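Q: Give me the 3D complex with fe (ii) ion.
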Amino acid sequence: MIKILWYLFFNLSYYYKGDFMYKKQELDYSLNDLEPYISYETLDIHYNVLYERYLNNLNNLLKKNNFNFNIPKEEIYNIIKRFPVDDREAILFNLGGVINHELYFSNMTPLGKEDIRFNNVIESKYITFQNFIEKFSVKAKEIRGSGYTFLVIDKDGELGLINLANQDSPYRMGLFPIMNIDIWEHSYFLDYKANKDGYISNYFKILDYSKIYKRYEEFIKEIC
Ligand SMILES: [Fe+2]
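A: Here is the predicted complex, encoded as structure tokens.
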């Protein structure tokens, strides 16, 4: 009887553990909803192929190391030293690939959405919203190769703009990202070819500033 119970326990726990993994973030718009600024084809490849590949790679690396998926993904940066040295670089790269893309996809919305509360926050730092957009755009154009521009908050609630290469993340530096733009060529090349500036200027037309403000508000509440 005890043998049977042990057998059931091990088999059930195996299948139970198999269900643990980080899930693909749903889009709250359709793949063609961001046209003409981002095409169906670009978004389909970006979301269904590239983002999903980062997610699968991350889940497989974590499963291999018997990780139990019991913390938010962002907290993995705090415990990275628990993983074997040989796996850390791949975990960090794919983790960034997941987190950065989830922020990017979730901040977009067809036709964009303004929020006066976010305008007020931005104006307290950048004087005018237009000035913020110009500074963000200049920063994004400075990226050489692949990477992202982020609007981040530090632990004192100060806003700032940073560029990070490849799939590096502000979380690794103790900064909280609330908005980003993907400057990897796969984000825009099919639609804009070499016109990266056109992609950057159109990006602001499809942002949901209410969501970005909500991220800001949640983080500020956390540190107060
Ligand atoms: Fe991307």
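A quick observation: The chain is about 50% helix and 10% strand.
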